[in-house]
Amino acid sequence: MKTLAHRVAAVGLVGAALAGLGAGFGPQAFAAGGTRASSAPAFPSLDPAALQAAIQTRPTDDAAGAIARVEEPGQLWKGSTIDSQTGRKISPNAHFHIGSISKVFETTVILQLAAEGRIDLDQTVQHYMPGLFPDTFQPITVRELVNYTSGLPDVDEGKPAASVDETIADRYRYRTFDEIINTTLRPNDRRPWPGPHFTPGTKQEYNSLGFRIAGKLIEQITGHSFREEVTTRILKPLHLNQTSVPENDPVMPRPYLHGYITDGNGTAVDVSEQGGDPSNMISTPADLDRFITALFQGRLLPADQLNEMFTVPKGSDGNPVPFIGTSCNKQACFGAGLMSTPLPGGGVLWGKTGHDDGYANGMFATRDLSLRGIYSVSNLSLDFGAPTPLANRLLTAVLNPTAPRG
User: What's CA 116's distance to the chain center, in Å?
Assistant: First the structure.
């Protein structure tokens, strides 16, 4: 079972990594409202040696290995490390649990249904699913679910965090959307029922419960499972043959990046096989690159719906609404599903990070696809509160390959 800490911390790593690269990263590089600045930076040529050095795991990384893929027009680099637990070389295109990167797939399906007139983004969740929320919650629109302005509590809010040993022992547990929603909003273990964090639409806060509700909405509107809709609408048309929605099947397709958690005795336990919920997905760097490319090219969504993903919510003053937390530097930086990060000299990276037990991942690109990158780290720790060090080094190697590698 994934804990609240897993979900809350699965954001902001790309932004935090970029923030550590020095001057040039700041609000001035980010055009108001989340659109790209008028002049995009010219990226240096990819340096394979710098990129490979960046992903080599170090003792302070608390990681067992990594894979990455970076592409610029006419240039492609793929890299991997040794798995420190097996001593074997990891395949550069290994499978891995993508964590909250699945939110981008989910948002794409929601927006496709909106384009088809089957979902109204401005209609309330209460309209589509009466009785889902306790009466303490004000009306929440579908758009607010996917652009992180719902004000909902997060998954399992108020529940004590599981220890590493409890997490390892419970790793095969599978929960349906209904179970997650009900046990969060109406816990029956003597916890008080959580209320809203703020009035919907007035602030932005990273939230995973909204996407479990969006998954349930997809299933209710279509009459099909989340797995069927993602497979039919995205995986098959794009020939993403290495991407799957496993539901409650824990078996990993081969080859795969092994995910580990260090137990209470200091032993790395392989947790690659795990449960989760209906929105859990497995993919590879090549498939995620194909997905983000097709998405940004408009091959999955009409222009109006695609622009929702690149639109940061604004308040009545015309400025991005405030962000609660540290990921967005006090003001909203998420559109529908996607997170934005300003680049030095102009331009914006858009994408998503994600965690599952044993995995820390990222998928990002500029909107014009002049830079794309995917990475997955075999993460030994449950502490997802700090930026993934490898992500910092990888982005430094992309943007400034001549920087010292120490």
Answer: 25
Instruction: Concatenate the DSSP letters of all residues of 346-375 into one string.
Output: S-EEEEEEEEETTEEEEEEEETTSSSEEEE
Residue that has been written with the tokens 């929603």 in this structure: 181
Distance CA 167, CA 147 (A): 29
Residue-wise DSSP of 60-110: GG-EEEEEEEEEETTEEEEEE-B-TTT-PBPPTT-BEE-GGGHHHHHHHHH
Burial label, 343 (beta-carbon count in 10 A; 0-12, 13-18, 19+): buried
Q: Say if CB 51 and CB 79 are below 8 A apart.
A: yes
Backbone angles phi, psi at 344, to 5 degrees: -65, 140
Amino acid (one-letter) located at 315? G
pLDDT at 78: 98
CA angle (160, 378, 226) in 5-degree steps: 70
d(CA 231, CA 242): 12
299 exposure class (CB count in 10 Å sphere: 0-12, 13-18, 19+):
exposed
- Digit-coded pLDDT (tens) for 67-112: 999 999 999 999 999 999 999 999 999 999 999 999 999 999 999 9
Short-list 200, 149, 150, 147, CA closest to 308: 147
Burial pattern 47-79, b for ≥16 Cβ within 10 A else e, equals beebbeebbebeeebbbbbbbbbbbbeeeebbb
The C-alpha atoms of residue 64 and residue 143 are separated, in whole angstroms, by 38
pTM above 0.90, yes or no: yes
Instruction: Give per-residue pLDDT as tens, 367-393.
Output: 999 999 999 999 998 765 556 888 889
Q: Which of 331, 241, 240, 337 is nearest to 296 (CA)?
A: 337
Distance between CA atoms of residues 52 and 89, nearest Å: 13
Note the pLDDT tens digit of each residue in 145-169: 999 999 999 999 999 999 999 999 9
Name residues whose C-beta falls within 8 Å of residue 288's C-beta, 6 or more positions apart in sequence. 98, 101, 243, 363, 374
